[in-house]
Amino acid sequence: MSEPVEISWFGALCDDDYEFLGVPEPTLLSSWGHCRSIVQTADRNGFDNVLLPSGYALGIDSTAFAAGIATCTEQINLLLAVRIGEMWLPQLARQLATIDQMSGGRLTINIISSDMPGQSLESAPRYRRTVEYMQGLRALLDGRRLDQHGDFVDFDLDPPRIATVSPGCPPMYFGGFSEAAKDCAAEAADVFLTWPDTVASVGETIVDMRGRADRFDRSLRYGLRAHVIVRDTEAEAHAAADRLISKLDDDTGEAIRKKSLDTESVGVSRQSELREGADDDGYAEPNLWTGVGRARSGAGAAIVGDPDQVANKLRAYQSVGVDAFILSGYTHIAECDLVAKHVLPEIPHSPLRPRL
After folding, report:
1. Which of 17, 78, 15, 16 is CA-nearest to residue 50?
2. Domain extent at residue 184
3. CA angle 240, 6, 18 (to 5 degrees)
């Protein structure tokens, strides 16, 4: 890779850590102690960023966790998932600026636009609300007066005194696959995130998004969220993948998938299509294994192989425009160590938002 990419890890705040997929292990459930250990491991291992996902029924609160972990880490950026609509916009801006100060300028923001617990909003207004919130957040965190009068954000007020450490709003990451979601990202996001797919399909998505961003006279960066299983040999990696799902039955997997708030989304449907089109061993293309999606609503495929194969797969995605990777693996601490040992030394990487 000629240019550095951002390589991030995953905080597993939403009860998504297993030795055997679909078999809960009490010590791996989301908790302050366990998730803190995951993030601190990623910090020590030199990952650039860590996604702190947002859930309701599953796991612990991402915002509270981000504030706590900000004081327990040294280098890693914190990609905090924010579910739009849960928080009054001016207060959300104050929260984010405060966490950025607590972390010494290491906050990044993952914007989530799914339905909230107990509340459903049609796609078009939901994404309009998301755009308005992103624009309002950007103004306030840039230190600008917010003079915005939309359907969901109607304010005329000065920014709060509390400000981010770095000048301006932290980068906003956003993922979504419907037409409205893609237009939302093109209009207001900084980094467009896609879920695992074939290299060619990811490339087509990026070409599409570049065209959409051009219509708003904007440019985006592009990220890929995927799982990883890396071992010394390809045979060992395939065996680890088989072992991961060896105790999973279809009914349990379906029940886990249905717990998510985004089970009917276009992105989830595409992950199902990818899985259904895979070969008998679950591979959609070389080194892209869809078995994880049997018990996961969101990102449902893993890059599987020996160190060279995994590194080459990341390079293939970079060749079509990806410059940010959010990786994870089971168990999250053990796989974090393996990716750090086998993959990070092969891939030049640095955070998209430079540390201060």
Report:
1. 78
2. 6-227+307-312+321-346
3. 30
User: Is residue 222 within 8 Å of 323, Cβ to Cβ?
Assistant: yes
State the average pLDDT over residues 218-235.
Answer: 97
Number of independent structural domains in the chain: 1
d(CA 175, CA 267): 9
Please tell me the number of Cα atoms within 13 Å of 184 on its side-chain side. Answer: 28
pLDDT band per the 50, 70, 90 thresholds, residue 356: low
CA distance 191 to 174: 6
Residue 282 lies inside a defined structural domain of this protein: no
The token pair at 5 is 């990419």
Bridge partners of residue 191, in order along the sequence: 173, 221
Q: What is the CA radius of gyration of the chain?
A: 19
pLDDT of residue 293: 78
Please indicate, yes or no, if residue 89 is contained in any of the structural domains.
yes
CA angle 116, 119, 125 (to 5 degrees): 85
pTM of the model: 0.93
More confident residue, 22 or 328: 328
Average pLDDT in the 308-328 region? Answer: 98
Q: How far apart are CA 57 and CA 15, in angstroms?
A: 10
Alpha-carbon gap, residue 12 to 35, rounded angstroms: 7
